[in-house]
Amino acid sequence: MARNAEKSQSMLFRFRAQQAADLGILDTTRTRRPKAISQQESIPTCERWRGQVLKEISRKVSKIQDAALSDFQIRDINDELNKLFKEKWQWEMRIRELGGPNYMRGGGRVVDEEGREIQGGGKGYRYFGRARELPGVKELFEAATVKPPEDKALEKRADLRQKVDAAYYGYNLDEEDGTLLGYESATEKESFDAFMAAADDKGDADWEPLPGDSGHGDAWILPTAEDVETELIERRKRKLLDKL
Questions:
Q1: Within a 13 Å sphere around the CA of 85, how many CA atoms are in the beta-carbon half?
Q2: Is the dihedral of CA 208, 213, 218, 220 positive or negative?
Q3: Of 31 and 223, more confident
């Protein structure tokens, strides 16, 4: 059996490697993942690198569950997972820019290469597995899940609708027995009498009657309908005489 070094020098192996390079297919196990993601121009190549990132995410998610890890190791692995998720997003953005499938359609739901959902995969900095139980992180999750007291909760629209009855729209018995109408009439009369008493009180310094047309200080006299009609007829006569 030929060794790997001998296989790599064979004519068939070199032909297959050149054929894969011409088709834009790379061997991700032998090639280092590129850093300049925006310079990649092949959709199959980007999808292969994205698949490699997903495999690394799956391995590290399983590794972070190891009970033998210290808190420092868990933090390091969690940081690496966040960097991998950022790189995964960059590959998906590049695939979408090149006209490939939209892998970001699922939103905050993140799955590995086998289709299993990864808990903690969303937006922003995320914590996976045992990283959620680290000192300081666990308290943050517990504080986020605490519900506010019911007495401080705001009323919803459905609760407000339950308090609305026929009396809110004016369909009550106050107008049928005449109690409300009598009270309104008495209040209206009191307000009118108080206004007229203030108008007749000449000693009030804040009260000033409106001046008349001649400016002699008499109270304002409102014209009647006949006065208005007579004034309009006179104006029309003056316009006709001016034209003549």
A1: 26
A2: negative
A3: 223
Residue 232 has pLDDT above 90, yes or no: yes
DSSP per residue over 91-107, as a string?
HHHHHHHTT---GGGGT
Q: Taking the CB of residue 29, how many other CB atoms lie within 10 A of it?
A: 6
Cβ atoms within 10 Å, residue 121: 19
Burial class (CB in 10 A: 0-12, 13-18, 19+), 141: exposed
What pLDDT, in 10s, does the model give residues 134-151? 888 777 767 766 565 555
Residue position matching structure tokens 């061997």: 27
CA 197 to chain centre: 58
Long-range contact pairs involving 71-74 (C-beta distance under 8 Å, separation at least 24): 71/134, 71/135, 74/129, 74/130, 74/131, 74/134
- Tokens representing residue 210 in the block: 């409106």
**In the structure, what pLDDT confidence band is assigned to residue 195 with cuts at 50, 70 and 90?**
confident
The reply to whether the predicted model has a pTM over 0.85 is no
Query: Computed from CA positions of residues 110, 116, 117, 121, in that sequence, does the dihedral angle turn out positive or negative?
Result: negative
Q: Please give the C-alpha separations between residue 103 and each of 111, 159, 213, in angstroms, as whole numbers.
A: 11, 41, 83
Closest CA to 39 of 94, 88, 93: 94
3-class DSSP assignment, residue 117: strand
Q: Are 110 and 118 in contact (CB under 8 A)?
A: yes
Q: Which of 7, 10, 46, 6 is nearest to 26 (CA)?
A: 46
